[in-house]
Every structure is written in C-alpha cells, then in structure tokens.
C-alpha cells in the first residue's frame, strides 16, 4: 500500500496525516474544496484535487484519477457521506473513516469498541447539522462502515477523543496554555481530578495509517493518549513545558456560582469522566507520544501562532473574583 487519497488534508488532523504518510513513503493526493490554504502547495510529493466531497461525481473522478490503495476520510460528518464513500471506494485496500469518541451513547469508564453502546441516530438527525446530533451522526457512520465490511469492503473507523496539538483551530487547549503563560494563579473547576481523555494530533494521524495498514475491515479503533492526565495534571504539564510554576486554585460549584460561573464555563472540563480504551489500537503496534513531549510541541506551536483560546475565556475578572472569594475563606 503506497498510494493514499486524503479527503480534507489541509487544516488539522488531515494536515498531520499527510505529513505522517509522507514520512512513511506514501504518494499522497489531497481532495478538498481549496477554501483553506494548502500547506503542501510547494511539496511536489503532494498532489491536489479540488472538489467538494458532497459532490459524488467529483469524488468518483478523484477515485479514477488517483486509483488509491488507501483512502482516509477526514471530512465525513453525515452517514450518507460515508455510504457514498464506501460505494465509490469499494475496491480499495483500506478506507478509513474518522468517527469520534462522541459516537458512544452511554457513560461508562472506559468506553470500549464493540462493547460500549453507540448513539442511536434518527433519520432526521442523520441529515441535520446541529452539534447535538454530532455523536449520533458519527455513530451511524460507524454502522455504515460495519455494514460495508460485511459486504467485503475494506472499511474501518477510528474514534478519537478530543484532539489537541499544532494547528488546532478549536483553540481549546490554547485557553489553558494562555492562562499558564500569563498568570501565576489559575482557577481549575472542581477538585482538579476531572478527566476528559484527549488525543495528541500526530498520534491520531499515525493511528489512521496503522489502522489502514494493520486494521481489520469492519472494526473501529479508539484513539487517545495512552497516559491520561487530569485537568490539574494537564495544567502542570503545560507549566513544565513552558518552564514556569503556577498555583492551581480549586473552585467548587458554590464559589464559582458566587461569581456567576459554573464548572462547565471552563473548556475541557467534563463532569463525568470520558475515557476511551486504547488497547485495541495498541495491539496493532500503534504507540502514543509521551504527554510531556506532546505538550512541549503544542506549547511551541501555540507560541508561534496567534491562537489564544480567548473565545473559551470565562472572563479573567470573574476568575479574579473567585480567587478573592477563596482567599477570604
Ligand atoms: N478535532 C477533534 O477534536 C476531533 C475529535 C474527534 C473526531 N474528529 C473528526 O476528525 C475529522 C477531522 O476533523 P478536523 O477538525 O481535523 O477537520 P478540519 O480541520 O475541519 O478538516 C477540514 C479539511 O477538510 C476539507 N473539507 C471540509 N469540507 C470539505 C468538503 N465538503 N469537501 C472536501 N473537503 C472538505 C478542508 O478543506 P476545504 O475547506 O478547503 O475544503 C480541510 O482540508 C472530522 O471528521 C471530525 O469529526 C475531530
């Protein structure tokens, strides 16, 4: 397998995937609309086909032009898109769909492939664009993959939890990096032990390649950091990467409420732990980057970018009020 078609490929996960494929000697073609700058435009190893994945003919033409061995679908948000793709790419050696940890429909620790129940998806949800139906749509995409595999198509899926790292346009981690860079005392909601499993983006990229190369048709593979860190540990790992010390101040619901805040106002806080088992993927030979190294690269990229996570900021004034309330206790 050495000829890859990446649907997407210029923004976040797909961009890292292209780099990983190049490092592993693949010929790569990216297929996208051209709305985002192409970071590989000067790289002769990367071909670009302009097209919209919702245009079946454009996708079919890309298939005939590239004749890929492996197809990586970074931009399937609706089950109908997955159904079209498995049909068009029915004879490739590997079709890998990016699903999501949000596809799981119940809370349990850890969430395991083939064991933990997936979200249901109504016909209405399957075609809408709302955030609320994201998990159901991703789960239905997984079921399309499973059904395709039962017809002999080499389709597989990967399920990343929250992805972080260089070029992360969501700026979720950037909020916390920005706080560590700019303040000595930081409010962390709850007692700091809250866990929302995260996946370093280069590891998601390598997971997609490993699944294409070693995975089994009809299987889904969770992706997440092998070592999980709590929210407070994450702040400490960021501080180590920055080379500074910060004082983490825990604030419970009552102290936050006195300042008009709630724990959910803090990005990457989640009440119930979200943990994906990564054993199945590790059994294919996949490894994850140590968390401190992943954070070092994330902080470096943050410093070189203009990302500050301010869209997630609960408000430093409100935070200062929480700190002064806690100081008086
Ligand atoms: N980020 C996370 O935390 C996370 C977690 C779990 C799962 N996922 C899944 O991972 C996948 C990739 O996420 P991402 O955040 O890396 O995506 P992304 O950066 O938004 O990917 C966008 C890429 O796809 C292209 N694209 C978008 N719409 C297209 C269309 N209609 N036709 C052709 N190309 C199109 C974009 O280029 P153009 O705009 O130029 O077309 C760009 O190259 C998604 O399926 C997402 O659900 C993400």
UniProtKB/TrEMBL annotation:
Annotated coiled-coil segments of the chain: none
Bias (Basic and acidic residues): 293-322
TM annotation in the entry: none
Residue segments, region Disordered: 292-329
Occurrences of domain NAD-dependent epimerase/dehydratase (ranges): 4-224
Sequence similarity: Belongs to the NAD(P)-dependent epimerase/dehydratase family.
Name this protein carries in UniProt: NAD-dependent epimerase/dehydratase family protein
Organism name: Haloferax marinisediminis
